[in-house]
Specification:
Layout: E1 6-11, E2 16-17, E3 24-32, E4 41-51, E5 57-64, E6 71-82, E7 88-99, E8 104-113, E9 116-122, E10 126-127, E11 135-142, E12 150-160
Amino acid sequence: MANNNTVNEVVNLAAQTINATAETAVAGAVVAVPTSYPYPTFKLRFAGTCAGGTGATLQFKLYAGAAVSGTALGSFTVTGAAVPAAGGNFSLTADLTWDAVSGKLTGTLGGQTNGTITAAAAITTASVAAQSGLVFGVSATFGAALATNQVKVAEFTVEQV
């Protein structure tokens, strides 16, 4: 949930139905680190609800830049855990550090889906030349193409660490 450390956010996005197994950008889920943000470290928090059905595993992918066309920082999935048609929840956290001198973005990504935790793992290092390039998007990929597949973002925030 957004808190006093939040420096940018998108909240309560409309539910998005993804009746496909292709990677799909989560509509509206794009946040940027403000160019006035003075620190090299920050946290991204991405949370909401999801619905699926038989065989509907769910993978999220975090991007530096617009989702699907940016630099993939890392994938997040809960191995073997299908998202039920009745729904569930998810929350991902990325702890990131950007070095203005080298232009490198590093950090970790982890979280949970329906209470099943995936430990944080290192992201793929990305090159981001300027602070204005610290823009992030998310994509979703379901394991089965079902009319019940849905992602609803409650929050996507940038937080001061």
